[in-house]
């Protein structure tokens, strides 16, 4: 589909997409790059990052991969420092897309499994946003910087085998509202987007749920 935006609308802008090496995050990074932004993507696996950067580069996009974990504030700090060294002070777009999920009934879900998803989604969103805030305030974009937190639709009702992810995304939504209220006066817009499942490795759970009697109406 042809983009309704000018191809250079993000020229000279710097964007960071956490969890940007695959899935929705990679396509977000690609679209930002196709519209002129210099794009950084973060992830835990260097090999996956390298592949994603090559994919973006094949589209003529200036991209860099940043290895680390959003659960670590030190990783987030290192990423921002690396971007400032590479492209100068100021971050124009931050997309918090890093997330973790798996299928588990509440009975089978371990405390560590629940904690892990909460930390990747909620703590990761907070860590990255908080660390990036000074760089976002330094954005040279005349309209200010933008933070987009990727949420989900799981928490709006009830979803089978998703107690952990539903709680995590509800926390992301709350963080989004709080940051939007606090940071607006600094010219930093904070919004959330809640996409549904997509085809791919992470989206296969939808087909499993649909095979459960009475579950499909909740998907």
UniProtKB/TrEMBL annotation:
Could you say which EC number(s) this protein's record lists?
Answer: 1.3.1.124
GO BP terms: fatty acid catabolic process
Q: What is the lineage of its organism?
A: Eukaryota, Viridiplantae, Chlorophyta, core chlorophytes, Chlorophyceae
Instruction: Show the catalytic activity.
Output: a (2E,4Z)-dienoyl-CoA + NADPH + H(+) = a 4,5-saturated-(3E)-enoyl-CoA + NADP(+); a (2E,4E)-dienoyl-CoA + NADPH + H(+) = a 4,5-saturated-(3E)-enoyl-CoA + NADP(+)
Single GO molecular function:
2,4-dienoyl-CoA reductase (NADPH) activity
A Pfam family that this protein carries is adh_short
Per UniProt, residues of the Ketoreductase domain are 13-186
* SMART domains in the record: PKS_KR
Keyword terms of this UniProt record: NADP, Oxidoreductase
Q: What Gene Ontology cellular component terms go with this record?
A: peroxisome
> What is the protein named?
2,4-dienoyl-CoA reductase [(3E)-enoyl-CoA-producing]
């Amino acid at each position: 589909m042809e983009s309704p935006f000018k191809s250079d609308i993000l020229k000279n802008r710097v964007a960071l997409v956490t969890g940007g090496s695959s899935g929705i995050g990679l396509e977000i990074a690609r679209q930002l790059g196709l519209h002129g932004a210099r794009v950084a993507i973060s992830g835990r696996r260097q090999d996956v990052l390298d592949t994603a950067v090559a994919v973006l580069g094949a589209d003529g996009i200036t991209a860099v991969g940043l290895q680390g974990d959003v659960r670590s504030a030190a990783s987030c700090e290192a990423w921002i420092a690396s971007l400032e060294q590479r492209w100068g002070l100021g971050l124009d777009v931050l997309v918090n897309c890093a997330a973790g999920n798996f299928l588990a009934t509440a009975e089978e879900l371990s405390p560590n499994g629940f904690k892990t998803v909460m930390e990747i989604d909620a703590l990761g969103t907070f860590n990255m946003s908080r660390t990036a805030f000074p760089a976002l305030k330094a954005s040279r974009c005349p309209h200010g910087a933008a933070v987009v937190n990727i949420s989900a639709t799981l928490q709006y009702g009830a979803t089978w085998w998703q107690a952990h992810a539903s709680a995590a995304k509800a926390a992301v939504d709350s963080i989004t509202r709080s940051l939007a209220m606090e940071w607006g006066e600094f010219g930093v817009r904070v919004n959330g987007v809640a996409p549904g499942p997509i085809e791919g490795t992470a989206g296969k759970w939808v087909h499993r749920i649909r095979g459960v009697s009475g579950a499909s109406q909740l998907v």
